[in-house]
Amino acid sequence: MNKPTQQRPRQVTLAAGVIIAGSAFVVLSAWDSVSRMRSLETREAIERFLSEPPGSGLGIGVEAVIEMMHVAALTTAMCAAAATVLGWYALQGQRSARTALAILAVPLFLTGLVAGGFLSSVVAAACAMLWLSPAREWYAGRPLPTAPARDVPGPGPQGGQSPDQPPTLPSYPSPQGGSVLTQAPVASGTERRPDAVRSALVITVVSATIVLLLSLLGGVTLALSAEQVLDEMYRQSPQLREQGVDRDMVRNTSIVMTVVFVLASAGAILCAVAMGARKRWGARGLMVLSVATAAFSVMGAVGSLIALAPALAAVAVIALLRRPEVRAWFDSAPR
């Protein structure tokens, strides 16, 4: 197992850190799911699902669903535990660890939808980041792509011309009059989209799409099953009945929260696409949304550790957008 000899790119450090920390949280989440698998609340929720379409058409019982969820949770936990160790070896430059993470990302993403929640998707996206440039070149032992630099004017050897700038060719009169200035084309390294921008774009689109779909699914489910949700809330917190919490309040709250999450997710995708098109307002909007998402997720983590998943994705995007080559890329954009 050959290790790269060059300095490790920040993208590898960030991706491996997300894999290690995220996988550890996935293990805890899967363990919590297994501990609550055969609780009365879980059985009642499964019975309600199987008593209505589309669950009623599956033709399976409660025990079969619990067994499938148990297998999915154990698979998620094992994949996440392995990813935690492999993430450390990938951080050290082990190519075989990167390949193993790519293989584990598929079952981790699929089974994690049952037991690991949104966080398993973030870990899978971080595994994909290890195959993007400059991580790809680093693992292959090839020279890393140079970061774009700004063109700083300064005195040159010939009339203030920079030594790196190609010489200007003389002017010649054109047939229509005037003169034509012929100059060799200057290649600008800042025209190339930085890898940090591509990574932030991928993380944002994947994360926001998952949140958008889950928000729509959860909002529709709550709106259609407000009575069952309210009964469960009354059972867990009887004081809610005295506080005047009724079915209409549950339905209206679910609709408002769904609209907020959908608009925020759609806004993040729009800003990410604009950022990829070199629009400064897209990067600024994405930075604001990422900070807000991280703060909201940390506050929501008091009730569930799964709420930290969007925070990890948001922090990764913030770190990528703060890279110097990203700022230089936007500074050199045509006005």
UniProtKB/TrEMBL annotation:
Instruction: Name the source's superkingdom.
Output: Bacteria
Q: Where is the composition biased (Pro residues)?
A: 164-173
Keywords from UniProt, A to Z, are:
Membrane, Transmembrane, Transmembrane helix
Q: Any transmembrane segments, and where?
A: 12-31, 71-91, 103-132, 200-226, 255-275, 295-321
Q: Name the segments for region: Disordered.
A: 144-191
Protein name as catalogued: DUF4064 domain-containing protein
- Organism of provenance: Nocardioides gansuensis
